[in-house]
Amino acid sequence: MSSMAAEGYSRKRNSYSWLYFMLPSIAIMLVFFIYPVFLTFFYSFTNLALTGESARELKFVGFDNYLHMFKDPTVKISIWNTLIFLFGSAVIGQQVLGFFIALLMKHKNKTFRRVIGTIVLAGWVTPEIVCALCLYSFFGDEGTLNSIITSLGIPAVTWLYTVPMLTIILANIWHGTAFSMLVFQAALDDVPSEVEEAAVVDGASRWQVLTRIIIPYIKETFTTNMMLVTLQTLGVFGLIYAMTGGGPGTSTTTLPIFMYNQAFVNYQLGYGTAISLLLLLIGIVLSLFYTRSLK
Amino acid sequence: MNAKQRKIIYRIMPYAILTLIGICFVLPLLWVMVASVDTNAMQTLKLPRAVTADNYIEVITSRENQRAFLIGLIMSLGQAVLVVILALLAAYPLSRYQMKYKKSFMLTILFMTSLPITAVMVPVYQLFLSLKLYDQIFGVILFYVASSMPYGIWMLKNFMDSVPLDLEEAAWVDGASVFTGIRKVVAPLMVPGICTVAIFTFSGSWGNFFVPYILLQNPENFPASLKLYQFFGQYGMIEYGNLAAFSIMYAIPSIVLYILSQRFMSKGFGLQGGTKG
């Protein structure tokens, strides 16, 4: 036993002992995480396919997939859809609404805060397929929203067909806002109340307190949260897929949906990978900014 | 409008706005809860004429559903246990040893925590085909472990930093090996951290749809998330009651685990919470 204790003490001398500890996790990350990232780069230059001739013979096609992408009108549509989805549900929805809820909740009645907080959180904790189901039936032709507006005398709207993008944006807001709300609640609690009070004593209006004191004070939280929320929203698949399937037509086809359709519906894995590389690159850039902001 | 009226409005406005937001958020949720106990559930939220547990009984007694829940449980539990063990081991030298590239390793790990998994699924599918892991429950677990490893290492390393070295050294003096030290001294002091990581990885994969959707093919291997989607697609238009009951049962573990996790996250919810570099 004493030799084992000695082994413990000499841990700094044995320069490779860290390897025993870290090897299993590094190995599993290398094979199933880092290698696929490199495969993404590699496959995007090939004609990889699930069926047909090219399924048997993997060939390098250079930039063909990328040239195809530039010509494919659906690529432009899905990039545009992704941007609208990101802007609507991540920037406006989660970030602004999350901040707004956190701000309004400050210094309010405790029970009231708890009730509203729990309701918003419930949407976040719920798995995405359940969210999709709840919101699908909410916006459905005979759903709750139409029941409400028809009872007010307004004619029913086929939400999922008329404004499909709006429905998936609202669904993602419903699912994601709680995260930003929690982040901003924590940040707002850190704003020293003396500074706020001093400003009020000096005659600052509510608006001035908000824009000149609170927002500058939590500026960094805004940037960090923005990147995190954007990264999460960028990868949203199940919610959109289960609610609209990317349709009607291509109206809610975001990049992940388009990638899925190309790779697994049209069996063009190479082309699908080229699209996912686009997603990956956006993700890498944002992640780098995120990592730097925390450094 | 005089000053007094204005003041009252300023006091009431936030409550009114928040109540409105709360109603918008609660309606879709209320529907799934009410529909799950309604004998004649519809797409719209309505008061049930009769309350019943039939929907739940039907969902629970179905062999297929039991299987889906069990598979989901095996996957998430398997992942959570593996992530905790492997990340704990990896975190040990990162927290205790002096290593040359520790800082850049940790930054890489942090970088990996935020990469969108969606973007690598097509190559992962291809990789699984060639490794004969496609359509294997175990394969899905392996991928889940790999994708949440960065998060696990990052969190557990930071939790481990706060466990004092003295206690461990005392154990060594008493003849414990490094591994015994980790098992008997370090890990028990990190229970809140370990629970946080286990809960978050568990509910992450429990709620995941995309990964099993790509990596599994045979409906017999489907976890609860895929079963719900299948259910949704096949009978979505008629069986609202059963669908809602299934959804509630499927959502409950996530909700319970979230509530439990709150007990371990004493520091509250800040972006800086688990991320002191």
UniProtKB/TrEMBL annotation, chain A:
Domain of life: Bacteria
Entry GO CC: plasma membrane
CDD domains: TM_PBP2
Pfam family, one: BPD_transp_1
Keywords, alphabetical: Cell membrane, Membrane, Transmembrane, Transmembrane helix, Transport
Chief subcellular location: membrane
Coiled coil: none
Gene3D superfamilies (UniProt xref): MalF N-terminal region-like (1.20.58.370), MetI-like (1.10.3720.10)
UniProt membrane topology term: Multi-pass membrane protein
Family: Belongs to the binding-protein-dependent transport system permease family.
Protein name in the entry: Sugar ABC transporter permease
Organism from which the protein derives: Paenibacillus mellifer
TrEMBL record, chain B:
GO biological process: transmembrane transport
Keyword terms: Cell membrane, Membrane, Transmembrane, Transmembrane helix, Transport
Any GO CC annotation of this UniProt entry: plasma membrane
CDD domains: TM_PBP2
Localization in the cell: Cell membrane
Record keyword Cell membrane present: yes
Pfam families, A to Z: BPD_transp_1
ABC transmembrane type-1 domain: residues covered: 69-261
Coiled coil (residue ranges): none
Claim: Membrane is one of the keywords in the record: yes
Membrane topology value: Multi-pass membrane protein
Membrane spanning residue stretches: 12-34, 68-92, 104-125, 137-156, 189-215, 235-260
Family from the record: Belongs to the binding-protein-dependent transport system permease family.
Name this polypeptide is given: Carbohydrate ABC transporter permease
Organism: Paenibacillus mellifer
Lineage, top ranks: Bacteria, Bacillati, Bacillota, Bacilli, Bacillales
